Amino acid sequence: MARNEKASPCNRAASVPTPDNMTKVFVKKSAYDSARIRSQVTEMLDSMGADWIAPGARVLIKPNLLLPAAPDKGIVTHPMICRAVVEYLLDRGAKVQVSDSPGVGSFRKVITETGYKAALEGLDVELKPFEESIDVDIGEPFGRIPIARDAVEADRVINLAKLKTHAQMYLTLGAKNLFGCIVGLRKPEWHMRSGVDRQLFARLLVQICQAVRPAFTIVDGILALEGQGPGKSGTPRELDLLVGGTDPHAVDKTICTLLGLNPGQLLTNAIARDMGFFDGHVHVNGDLRIVEDFKFPELNSLSLGPESFSRFMRRYMLQKPVVDNKKMQIVRRVLEDLPGQSHQSRHPGHPIRLRSLYPLLLLPRSVPARRDPRQRACSGPIAAAPDPLIFQGQHIKLDHN
After folding, report:
1. What are phi and psi of 377, to 5 degrees?
2. Nearest one of 27, 94, 58 to 259, comparing CA atoms
3. Distance from C-alpha of 3 to C-alpha of 278, rounded to nearest angstrom
4. Which of the residue ranges 150-154, 256-260, 326-330, 356-360 would you say has the lowest mean pLDDT?
5. How many CA atoms lie within 13 A of 350 on its CB side?
6. SS3 of 390, please?
7. Strands 388-391 and 282-286
8. Are the beta carbons of 258 and 291 closer than 8 angstroms?
9. CATH number of this structure's domain 19-313+382-397
10. How far from chain centre, in Å, is Cα 64?
11. In Å, how far from its chain's centre is CA 132?
12. What is the DSSP track for 255-302?
């Protein structure tokens, strides 16, 4: 599908899922060996066919470069995986760019300490931070939000995530990684706008993911991060996993299953299903090992930094509603035209307070009705059976949804 075409949430098989109509996810037992990773990356990307990337196409690679940290800390996508993807794309004539917007530290410091600068040296690739944004309509309730122009305008996006716990969102995998396409201080701004509503923030992540539309997602779980991730409070753990697929939500669901987690507990996965972006059907191809005793985080507030910093951000950095005085004059005239009422209500002793009308003046022209979160985004039959994963030809039904 071309980058400028929108995927329809109703493009789902109405019949019982089979391996042929299910999203394929690769699960590979791997290690940080350049030849092995190159072979596995090639197999994954070749699965999209011979012509998925045209010569001269602009391809953006979006790794997880959260902060300045050595690869052995388990915090960033290992540069060896990024180099393998870059070489694959260059061999096919693509113009390649590697970019992210780190949460901590300058981009120069991040690429130096993570080893990206050294790993990509000598390759014809542009390594630079996201800087310029473009407004993209990601849908209600957010409307138009600024997303990195490089991510929006690229012909293809390759999403290179890291398998990490996240003390605010439980895990950061494929879908969450694309929040890095929000540039600079706009990331904490959106954290503040979401307040303490974890579901609202998860919906924002899903809709950003849909706007960026990655062609392929690879999650580096060779050295993962457990405990209180996604940064230095987490604990590195070797899982020897490299997971990839065309649908980031399918990749995320597979990883949840391998970690022994109900995929519905990952809010981005649950909301992607609820909005009709993912039907929950996955065909897994690869080497499978269920991870035991993976340490998940204790969830913290969505606020960033100390409470004093959060108060400062909410007070000075967030947009606030402002009453339109012209509309208020119209309301006054309407009230004055009410026969015999002036500024009084129709119930004696209860005057109409103009301030009580302020919220009405702030509403958009059309306000969508609240939708039952249990409803799907499109009608029609989906699949009567519980969500299946097929492991190496064995059909396994999951009892949880």
Report:
1. -75, -15
2. 27
3. 18
4. 356-360
5. 4
6. strand
7. parallel
8. yes
9. 3.40.50.11440
10. 12
11. 19
12. HHHHTT--GGGSHHHHHHHHTTS--S-EEEEE---PPPS--PPPP--S
Per the CB < 8 A criterion, the answer to whether 387 and 380 are in contact is no
Residue with tokens 């604990």: 235
Q: Is 187 helix (H, G, I), strand (E, B) or coil?
A: helix
Question: Rg of the Cα trace of the chain?
Answer: 24
Q: Which residue intervals of the chain bear CATH 3.40.50.11440?
A: 19-313+382-397
Tokens at residue 216, please? 């392929």
Render pLDDT for 126-164 as a digit per residue (tens, 0 to 9). 999 999 999 999 999 999 999 999 999 999 999 999 999
Q: How far apart are CA 137 and CA 207, in angstroms?
A: 9
Q: Looking up tokens 């849908």, which residue turns up?
A: 139
What pLDDT is attached to residue 374? 37
Q: Which amino acid belongs to residue 128?
A: K
Is 146 in contact with 138 (CB distance < 8 Å)?
A: no
Residue 381 confidence class, pLDDT cut points 50, 70, 90: very low
